[in-house]
Every structure is written in structure tokens, then in C-alpha cells.
Design brief:
Structural class: mainly alpha
Helix content: 55-70%
Oligomer: single chain
Strand order of the largest sheet: 1-2-3
Length: 388
């Protein structure tokens, strides 16, 4: 398609000039360059690339799939932006005009390649299993949370049942009534709740429900929405850590970290306590499992957020976990032979400012005693689903 359009453009530009003067071909030496580039540009533009800045590679998002016409659309746009028309006379073009056109097309293609593809989250129900828990029976949905627009090396997952979604919907309506006005939620059925057709329909409905909430700016940053994804994993990890089951706790903390990263919780001030708890949970588990490099890495990451400004240091306005975190990081760095001078200097500066660095609680003590509450002050533990 690209080759045909360029041939048509070239014939239109030169049909008058080539016949009018015997030396017409010499006056336009760029024609040979254009002819050579035709095949190259055509080869580069083959395939189903999309050149619109706001379109993603996922055709499901836009309702339109890139097709063979995408090449011609791009070329037509480039020609129009080059301010040349097939109806104009070649005499009106300045010398080198065709080369300029080719260069513009080439530059436009390069710029389209450098445009970033919008990254968003996809929710996909990959499993739905019927669970019999004593006298209670419910369907547990496993939902993968995946970043689109890129290869997601660390997808995260959540397991939720209908009542979990129902509770989320009720809380969002209570706190964000105006934004939730037009948001639909699948109704409860009196029977056939465990039929394959009902489970399949609800699976699709839950995917669409979460995607719609994510598209609403006011809701996707609300603590209620964010905590729905990761808080259960933090509570489960804490229970397992208290029981000394560090390998199992590590899985929950890692999944919680991936979910918080995908949802951007580390940038949300209201979620800072949960973000820090996650990092410290990973430090404690890795340390107990003798994976000291990973423990130090997450310790270092937590300190990047807690490192005080000079003013805060002078005012002794320090986070209560800063000193035990510094002490843990210095010990870990020493054990793995990593440079610890920066954190040693900060710890010494804190001591010189008059802060008592002795008798500090260990990170593990903090993790065991901390009460994890959601944004509504509910400390209730829900790991995989309860009987309600």
C-alpha cells in the first residue's frame, strides 16, 4: 500500500515536468532517492502497527483493531503534513522538496515509534472454584492483575468471593456516592449460584466492574478500592509471620508488594503505612530465611522513603521506625560486604542530635504487634473468604 501511494505521488509530481524539458530528470535528482526509499519505508511500515498516540496495542480497549489500512493512513497523514498536494504543480515545490517529504515521512515514523504506549491494568478471572467450608458454600474467584502495554514479568493475583465484591461496592457507594451513581453491580441470585453459566457471567462481570472502577480517577486512588486488593495478603502474611512460617508469609508479602506497585500505592500518602509494612515484612522474612541480599535490598528501599530532611533531623521529627531500620540495614550491609557508610553516617548524625538510639524495638517486634486496619478502621482478618 505504501509503495503504491508513493508511486502515485511521484507520477503526479513529474508527469508534467518530465515531458516538458529533456533535462527534467536531471533537475530532480531526488527522484532516485525516493525510489530507493520506497521499498525501505514500505518494509518498515508493514504489519499492524498503530500510529495514534492514545491507542494501545490492546484492540479490546478501543474497539478497533489495527488493519492493513493503517499503513496508508499513516502515509496519507505524512503527505498532508508535508504541505504537498497531488494536484499541485512540481514547479511550485522548492528544490529538494521531494527529499524533504521523504525525510518528513521517515522522521514521523521514528517519532511514532518513540511514543509511549499507555500502561493500564487488566483484570482476568483465571479460575472459579466452588468451596465447601463447613456449612457454608461459595465460589472463590482467582483474578490475575496484569499490566498491559508491556510484558508483565510479575503478574499478581487476588482470590475473592461474591460477598467481598459486594462489600467493596457498598463501601464505595457510602463514601463516593456521586461517582458510583452509574456503576452497575451483578445482583445476587436466589438459586443457580453454582451453575457454570452463572459463574462464567459473574467472572466477566467482575472483570468489567474492576476495570470500570479503575477508569474513574476519584475511585481508583481511594483507600477503599486499593485496600480491596492487597490488605488481605498483608494480614495473612502477618499471621504466618507470627507463627514462624516465614516461607509462606513471604509469598503473601511479595504478592502484596506487586499489587501495591501496580496500583501506585507507594505514591499515595494514605497508603504509606501499608507500603512500609509490606517492605518490612519482606525484610523480616528474607532475613529469617537467610536471604540477606534480598533483605538488605528491601531494607534499603524502605529507607529511601523514610530518610529525613535536614530540617526534620534538626527538629527530631523522625519516623519511629527509622532508627531500627537503619540499625538493621547497617548489620545486613556488613554481613553481605556492601557499602554501609551512608547509613552509618545518618545513624551517627541522629545520635549526635540527641535521639536515644538504644532500646529500640526490632522490626520483627513491630510487625508482630502492629494492628492492620483498613481505611474504615476495620481490623477484621479476611484471608481467603469467610462464611458471610
Amino acid at each position: 500500500m505504501a509503495s503504491k501511494l508513493l508511486d502515485r505521488l511521484r507520477r503526479s509530481l513529474f508527469k508534467e515536468g518530465a515531458s516538458a524539458e529533456p533535462g527534467g530528470a536531471e533537475e530532480f535528482p531526488e527522484s532516485s532517492e525516493l525510489e530507493d526509499d520506497t521499498e525501505c519505508v514500505s518494509a518498515r511500515l508493514s504489519g499492524t502497527l498503530s500510529f495514534e498516540g492514545e491507542r494501545t496495542l490492546d484492540s479490546e480497549d478501543t474497539g478497533e483493531a489495527s488493519g492493513p489500512d493503517s499503513d496508508s493512513d499513516f502515509l496519507a497523514e505524512s503527505i498532508e503534513n508535508g504541505s504537498c498536494s497531488t494536484e499541485g504543480s512540481p514547479v511550485a515545490l522548492p528544490p529538494g522538496g521531494v527529499t524533504l517529504l521523504t525525510s518528513q515521512m521517515r522522521e514521523s515514523w521514528r517519532s511514532s515509534q518513540s511514543r509511549s504506549i499507555p500502561v493500564k491494568l487488566l483484570f482476568e478471572v483465571t479460575d472459579a472454584s466452588v468451596v465447601q467450608d463447613g456449612s457454608s458454600k461459595y465460589v472463590l474467584y482467582t483474578i490475575h492483575v496484569i499490566q498491559s502495554g508491556m510484558f508483565d514479568r510479575s503478574p499478581a493475583l487476588i482470590t475473592r468471593r461474591y460477598t467481598d465484591f459486594e462489600r467493596l461496592h457498598a463501601r464505595l457507594r457510602r463514601r463516593h456516592g456521586d461517582e458510583m451513581e452509574g456503576v452497575c453491580f451483578p445482583r445476587k441470585k436466589l438459586r443457580r449460584n453454582f451453575a457454570a453459566e452463572t459463574i462464567a457471567k459473574r467472572s466477566r462481570a467482575f472483570e468489567q466492574y474492576l476495570s470500570h472502577l479503575l477508569s474513574l480517577a476519584e475511585l481508583c486512588h481511594s483507600p477503599t478500592f486499593l485496600e480491596f486488593f492487597y490488605l488481605g495478603d498483608l494480614r495473612a502474611g502477618q499471621v504466618l509471620l507470627r507463627g514462624g512460617r516465614y516461607q509462606e508469609a513471604l509469598g503473601f508479602f511479595l504478592n502484596a508488594l506487586r499489587l501495591q506497585e501496580k496500583l501506585g500505592c507507594q505514591a499515595q500518602h494514605q497508603q504509606r503505612a501499608h507500603w512500609l509494612f509490606t517492605l518490612l515484612g519482606l525484610v523480616a522474612c528474607f532475613q529469617e530465611l537467610d536471604q540477606l541480599g534480598e533483605a538488605q535490598e528491601h531494607c534499603d528501599r524502605a529507607l529511601q522513603d523514610l530518610a529525613p530532611s535536614q530540617h526534620a533531623l534538626q527538629q527530631q521529627n523522625l519516623h519511629p521506625l527509622l532508627v531500627p531500620l537503619l540499625q538493621a540495614n547497617v548489620r545486613l550491609s556488613w554481613k553481605i560486604s556492601k557499602d554501609k557508610r551512608r547509613w552509618e553516617a545518618l545513624l551517627l548524625e541522629i545520635q549526635d542530635s540527641g535521639v536515644d538510639t538504644g532500646n529500640q524495638p526490632s522490626l520483627k517486634e513491630y510487625l508482630i504487634k502492629e494492628v492492620l486496619e483498613d481505611s474504615e478502621g476495620d481490623p477484621k482478618l479476611r484471608v481467603k473468604g469467610d462464611s458471610t
